[in-house]
């Protein structure tokens, strides 16, 4: 049953990462596999692991992670073309649903685990998130030339939000103006876009388990408020 849980979790995590406002890591928490994923990510990027990989693979039950990654990739492959079809043929409805979901998710993130929602400590990071989202919209990356560096940085940022529970990497891609490009690249296997983006994701995987997660768990409320503001304003701009 435990192995089956990883198979199902991976599938729904893949689907979740395609949809703005829904976090794959939140799905991992739901299926109680998140902690194992983080511990495994830390382990596989350590020197100890590569000195004796076979022993470490057995120790951390990496076969479950491999199964999860496989079904996650399967979920992405099966639904990416469907989402592209809906996006291209029902753009206004699709954008409206994304906007509503992002706004609701942002409100949920801000309100949960809040003691004083109107305190300076709560409102300040929220305001900063709104400002950053506004500036990203004015920057409008889609109107500039998309370079390898841009895709690489987008990969780092998107995967960062994949690891942090409650925050959707796809929502951040919407904020950056790169959501449609990345989804189409996945659906058509456009390696010119996927390789630099994927390399950014890989770098994020190596760095984040040691740095970002530590910051996140020490400043969870403040960071979530910042993310809430960023996602909320991005949803507003989609209307």
Roughly what percent helix?
Answer: over 70%
- Beta fraction: under 5%
User: What structural category arises from helix and sheet content?
Assistant: mainly alpha
State the order of secondary-structure elements, H for helix, E for strand.
HHHHHHHHHHHHHH
Q: Segments where pLDDT lies below 50 for 5+ residues?
A: none
Distance between the termini: 43 Å
Overall form = globular
Give me the count of strands.
0
For the largest beta-sheet, the strand count, sense and barrel status come to:
none
Secondary-structure topology with pairs:
Blueprint: H1 2-18, H2 24-30, H3 34-44, H4 47-51, H5 53-59, H6 62-89, H7 91-111, H8 120-139, H9 148-163, H10 169-176, H11 179-188, H12 191-207, H13 212-218, H14 220-238
In short:
The protein has 239 residues and is mainly alpha-helical. The chain has 14 helices and no strands.
